[in-house]
Amino acid sequence: MSERREGPRVLLTTLPGDLHRLGLQMCAVITALTGARVMYLGPDTPVEEIVRTASGESVAAISISIAPNMDPGQVTGNLTKLRKHLDSNIEIAVGGTGAPSKLEGINTFDSFKEYYNWLSHLRQINK
Q1: Which of the 8 DSSP states describes residue 103?
Q2: pTM of the entire structure?
Q3: How far apart are the C-alpha atoms of 5 and 34, rounded to whole Å?
Q4: Rounded mean pLDDT of the chain?
Q5: What angle do CA 38, 41, 45 make, to 5 degrees?
Q6: pLDDT at 62 exceeding the cut of 60
Q7: Which residues of 83-119 are buried (b: 16+ CB within 10 A; e: fewer)?
Q8: What average pLDDT score do residues 93-99 get?
Q9: Which is it for strands 107-109 and 61-65: parallel, antiparallel or unpaired?
Q10: Residue 1, pLDDT score
Q11: What is the mean pLDDT of residues 103-124?
């Protein structure tokens, strides 16, 4: 669904230790439906690899699915580290029942509809 898209690149992954794939796969479908280009890293990705891939591939955003069993302190630490090491122009979006509600520089979504609307807007500003 993403091969012929010409929209912004969106990197999809989960944080280290998060092996859940379903939410991530659902995000990939929603992302492709907005016309964005999906770059699927898959689950359990080290923060350093996320930063390296995002920096080398000119991504507009990183979408991270967070499972409910993840340690909140570890999630917050990894997201803070990620935000610190990425260019400020790269958006970060998180969702899932393990996602923190408010972190500076991180967009949090409670529904796929909110995520879809945000991605649609991102596509408009990245034309």
Answers
A1: B
A2: 0.92
A3: 9
A4: 92
A5: 145
A6: yes
A7: beebeeebbbbbbbebbeeebeebbbbeeeeebbebb
A8: 95
A9: unpaired
A10: 55
A11: 92
CATH 3.40.50.280 for the 9-125 domain, yes or no: yes
Compute φ and ψ for 3, nearest 5 degrees. -60, -40
Residue pair 30/79 in contact by the 8 Å Cβ criterion: no
- Flag whether pLDDT at 115 surpasses 60: yes
DSSP state of 44: S
- Specify whether the backbone of 35 is left (phi greater than 0), alpha (psi in -120 to 50) or beta: left
Q: What is the pLDDT of residue 46?
A: 98
Closest to 1 measured CA to CA, from 26, 32, 28: 32
Q: Quickly count: other Cβ atoms within 10 Å of residue 62's Cβ.
A: 25
Buried b (16+ CB within 10 A) or exposed e, 17-43: ebebeebbeebbebbbebebbbbebeb
Report which of 70, 124, 64 is spatially closest to residue 91, judged by C-alpha positions: 64
Interior angle at CA 64, CA 58 and CA 65, nearest 5: 155
Strand partners, 65: 95
Q: Rounded distance, CA 114 to CA 10, Å?
A: 16
Residue 2 has pLDDT above 70, yes or no: no
